[in-house]
Known about the structure:
The chain is built from eight helices and four strands. By secondary structure, the chain is of the alpha+beta class. The protein binds uridine-5'-diphosphate and magnesium ion. InterPro entries: NDK-like_dom, Nucleoside_diP_kinase, Nucleoside_diP_kinase_AS. Keywords: ATP-binding, Kinase, Nucleotide-binding, Transferase. This is Nucleoside diphosphate kinase. ATP binds at residues 9, 57, 85, 91, 102, 112.
Amino acid sequence: MERTYIMIKPDGVQRGLIGEIVKRFESKGFKLVAMKLTKPSKEHMEEHYVDLKEKKFFAGLIEYMTSGPVCAMVWEGKGAVVTGRKMLGATMPSESDPGTIRGDLCIEVGRNICHGSDSVDSANKEIAHWFPEGICEWESCSKAWIYE
Ligand code: UDP
Ligand code: MG
């Protein structure tokens, strides 16, 4: 079963949106298999966003992302990566559709409250980076009511 790395950024934590975001993934039918509140170091965050290190917004992004705790999560389910990205909405909140997390809950790209893996490959890398201790395997009692 596919897994994706979803992270509530410091603004999402500060604004009390953890419950709202978790609720959407839970209600969708995805299964939470790892979760922790953590204050990442600069080095840890730079590694997470290593592909963006040449961008002009990189320094600001790292400052933002290390400004407080983040809620790191792994969600599991069929199509979790692609569907997770759809649920988050477009990177630019001004372009995110209503009904998406970013479309409903934020205004600026530099305060867009959540992160989601953009491919299965990056999901695997991000899960290993944020959860070196491993994830929690469990069987959900609602499985037969979510999957045919
Ligand atoms: N970002 C930014 N300015 C930009 C583009 C991106 O501050 O012009 C930030 C934004 O918080 C975004 C993050 O950098 O979520 C990572 O960028 P990416 O292109 O990977 O977007 P995402 O995968 O988060 O949708
Ligand atoms: Mg990205």
